[in-house]
Amino acid sequence: MERVLVVQHEDPCPPGLVGRWLVEDGLEVDVRRPYAGEPLPQGPGALDGHAGLLVLGGAMGADDDAEHPWLTTTKALLRAAVAEGLPTLGICLGHQLIASALGGRVERNPAGRQRGLVAVGWQPAAGTDALTAGLARAALAPHWNQDVVVDLPSGAVPLALSPGGELQVVRYAAGCWGLQCHPEADASIVAGWPGTGAVVPEVRAAEAALERDWRPVSTAWARLVLGGRLGGAA
Known about the structure:
Layout: E1 3-7, H1 16-24, E2 28-32, E3 52-55, H2 70-84, E4 88-91, H3 93-101, E5 105-108, E6 114-119, E7 121-122, E8 140-145, E9 147-151, E10 157-161, E11 167-173, E12 176-179, H4 187-190, H5 200-225
Parallel strand pairs: 1-2, 1-3, 3-4, 4-12
Antiparallel strand pairs: 5-9, 6-8, 7-10, 10-11, 11-12
Helix pairs in contact: 1-5, 2-3
């Protein structure tokens, strides 16, 4: 069974729905919690034995390496994954870490924190992208972030923008994508984030639609991890 290395940055941000979907699609998830002392692979061949890399969200900033030293290791893993062409997916902080690792820039959003369900503004490039082609139909996605990617690395392609113009889905390189939104978060996960009481009911009411719209994206990524061996329609 192919394994995906999953980097989790804190207890309230687990793999959630995406972790379940990947397992149901035939992958093994190797979750590492460096904040709890679980080591991340390092050095040459660090990603040997893994067919994909998934980096999750967290409350820290993408460049807070001094306070959270494993971020430096995570960014090295991301650069290695891109260099090797290993299928890579970043969610929220993970998306921002990809940008930082590859030479982009992350800053506090001057428009303020994004929270709750936010409209997804798919761009024309999403229609031909290896991850989102034929799947870019989600109208809404859960968000909970105050930082955003403000400068993309060279070669990165925006696939979706939020209503305020913030980058929402990005293809950073062949096989590497970042999602500012949280497709892994159902209402029970959102309820564990600070100050979300008012948005939990709207997320709970939308759970069926969110799973319908975002699971195909997870399945498309799983198919890439499996080298196209996952059958059926995305």
